[in-house]
Automatic annotation (TrEMBL), chains A, B:
RNA 2-O ribose methyltransferase substrate binding domain ranges (all copies): 32-106
GO biological process, any: methylation
Record PANTHER family: RRNA METHYLASE (PTHR43191:SF12), RRNA METHYLTRANSFERASE 3 (PTHR43191)
Molecular function GO terms recorded: methyltransferase activity
A Pfam family annotated for this UniProt entry: SpoU_methylase
Keyword Manganese: no
Superkingdom, natural source: Bacteria
The keyword DNA-binding is assigned to this record: no
Classification via InterPro entries: Alpha/beta_knot_MTases (IPR029028), Ribosomal_eL30-like_sf (IPR029064), rRNA_Methyltransferase (IPR051259), SpoU_MeTrfase (IPR001537), SpoU_subst-bd (IPR013123), tRNA_m1G_MTases_N (IPR029026)
Stated name of the protein: RNA methyltransferase
Originating organism: Microvirga terrae
Length: 266, 266
């Protein structure tokens, strides 16, 4: 049964207070998910435990079928728009929020060793933009990537906006962090992955690449790209572009490369 | 010589007043470009006449070399941040703005007849999101598309944010509007273009498509997609995706398709 909240200061909904300010600080053990598409994935497909929901009264009916999948001990709070906006701190047009617990990040070696013999993995180095990381997760899900590896400088896929841009894929595609870019390459090579680094200076052209059964695609930030010592240790691939124009957005690049690597030779 | 403006009410810089409010209304004969990368393309590669510039004092030096290309009768206004922010109506972090005149949109038949025998063209149907249109122009430039055609429902590529997301490509890739999606297909077929419509229900798979010398790629909005009668009259192509996940972003889709169409068979 939904619990109607009428007082914006009700301590029950403390977790939903000042969402943006807390986004900036970062949440250690929890994350916030918003919107209907993301909520449905969170309840149906993801590995995260939901702690509570906060719904605008007029959104309750549209997600009622999905709420049946929720354990009865998870509180569903409802509020009118004025109370919801006051608690959250800005107009929350989608009217749907959830708080869930982060899952422990597995050691990269364990994660890779459990993957099937044919697998595509994405590795992100220094990607500090939430839109790009969200977009890459969306593409990773669309092309069936088995996992995403993040270095320490890559931003949090469970940041609210990254989840939204990923259309919920950040909740679905398994990911973990590694200590450094070097450690990422080492772990991938130890697990028999052919490591493909995308770079404007790449020696092979993407459209000619025949992927191996286990292939990892490494992507760096748009300005600096991937470090030279990493390129020296991996298979470097470029996407030829028309003369003189600025390079592609990195999320678009991930889509182009994942499309090729998941379809080439099939 | 730059003209220092100290009074936010100075009528010289009227064109820069309340930028966001005027963005929403739309500008009939002019557009606003912002940021250094976009300014450099506007001055160097684009077909648009610049009317004036407004620069934060501390940005003047960083673009001094590009300003040499400017006709001496184009005024360059400078202001400190406080004056600039007051005029514009919000903090303009990039500190670089230009006002330029729109160019007349050529009739689609004229535009297509002037293209070379080998050409890739993009057609957009009902794309109302400025980020997506900007991203598609960026990809069109990266893969050497010769032109972009827009139906009446597709938003303005010269909207400030669309230009920014395109990294200036909206100023460089030629475009025009057509009366309807039907008229677009007709004009393309009259000009001997093989019209490829991307759709989840497409009969061919993108990675197997061998493009013709003159190929046009049609893209529709993420929800509704392209209309059924248009699909019936064109070559329909799909991008296979992993089971059950939401479709790709349309800008990413354009990058994947343009990459394939510009490299297949080469």
């Amino acid at each position: 049964m939904p619990i109607a909240v009428t007082d914006p200061d009700d301590p029950c909904i403390e977790a939903y207070r000042a969402v943006r300010e807390r986004d900036l600080v970062g949440r250690q053990h929890r994350f916030i998910a918003e919107g209907e598409v993301v909520l449905r994935l969170l309840l149906k497909q993801s590995r995260f435990r939901v702690e509570s929901l906060l719904l605008a009264e007029n959104r309750l009916e549209s997600v009622a079928d999905a709420l049946n999948q929720l354990s009865p001990d998870v509180p569903i709070y409802t509020a009118n728009r004025a109370v919801m906006d006051t608690v959250v701190g800005f107009p929350i047009h989608r009217g749907i929020l959830a708080v869930a617990q982060r899952a422990p990040l597995p050691p990269v070696g364990d994660m890779l060793s459990r993957l099937p013999e044919t697998a595509l993995v994405v590795g992100l180095i220094g990607l500090a933009n939430h839109d790009n990381v969200g977009g890459i997760f969306r593409n990773a899900a669309a092309f069936g990537a088995a996992a995403v590896l993040l270095d320490q400088e890559t931003c949090d896929p469970l940041y609210r906006k990254a989840i939204r841009v990923s259309v919920g894929a950040a909740l679905v595609v398994p990911f973990t962090r590694v200590a450094s870019a070097d450690a990422m390459v080492q772990a991938l090579q130890d697990a028999s992955f052919d490591v493909v680094s995308l770079s404007p200076s790449g020696r092979e052209i993407l459209s000619h690449v025949q992927p191996s059964r286990r292939t990892a695609l490494l992507l760096g930030a748009e300005g600096p790209g991937l470090p030279a010592d990493l390129l020296a240790r991996t298979r470097t691939v470029s996407i030829p572009m028309s003369g003189g124009f600025d390079s592609l957005n990195v999320a678009t690049t991930s889509g182009i490369a994942l499309h090729h690597l998941s379809t080439a030779g099939r």
